[in-house]
Amino acid sequence: MDAIDKTTAIVLAGGKGSRMNYQEKAWLIHRDKPLIMHVLDCITSQVSNTLISRNQLDERYESLPYACFKDSDNQFEGPLSGIVACLRGVKTEYTLVVPCDAPNLPGNLVTGLMEGIKDSDVCIAQDSERDQPLIMLARTDVLESINRYLSEGRRSVHGWLNRHDFARVRFPEHQLHNINEVAQLE
């Protein structure tokens, strides 16, 4: 079984969009198409199944050929809540997690992270300056620990990661760049 067959992707598209004038970030146009479409175009060939975590009741998600999962509440409790919402749709050994606002993800993202995970629970992407913890490959059974972490009132992705053995794989910075402000849209 290769990396594709062992991996499901979760695309995180459930944020508030506060830095984007509270617009639905996934659907903002960048280089002639919605941000989420750049991400989907890149990752769907690298995994066996793709799921989308969303928080808004935006009908555009229903037009996509992927299962969409809504957080259990509308409190925007962060990306870990989005991951938990999607877990019921994951049937593979590994789960790739990516944000909807990273339009330049590499075509070798899964294989690169798979090479790095080895004996670790999680492997995160890293650029030359910092860790990118929302671009990660995790053993799916490890993601179940997020429920307990959230039940303790915690929300930090870094905090959850620090409870696990995690590895890092470096990618060129431009491939991991995410769009955080309207001015960054092209």
Concise account of the structure shown:
Helix content is 25%, strand content 25%.
Could you characterize the architecture of this molecule?
With 186 residues, this protein is an alpha/beta fold. It contains seven helices and nine strands. A seven-stranded mixed sheet has the order 5-4-1-6-8-7-9, with helices on both faces. Strands 2-3 form a two-stranded antiparallel ribbon. A hairpin with a 4-residue loop joins β7 and β8. The chain starts with 6 loop residues before the first strand and ends in a 10-residue tail after the last helix. The model has no long low-confidence stretch (mean pLDDT 90).
Query: Share of helix among residues?
Result: 25-40%
Order of helices and strands: EEEHEEHEHEEHHHEH
Q: Indicate the radius of gyration in whole angstroms.
A: 15 Å
Low-confidence stretches: none
For the largest beta-sheet, the strand count, sense and barrel status come to: 7 strands, mixed
CATH architectural type: Alpha-Beta Complex
DSSP strand (E) fraction? 15-25%
The count of domains is 1
The averaged pLDDT comes out at 90
**In what order do the strands lie side by side in the largest sheet?**
5-4-1-6-8-7-9
> How many beta-strand segments?
9
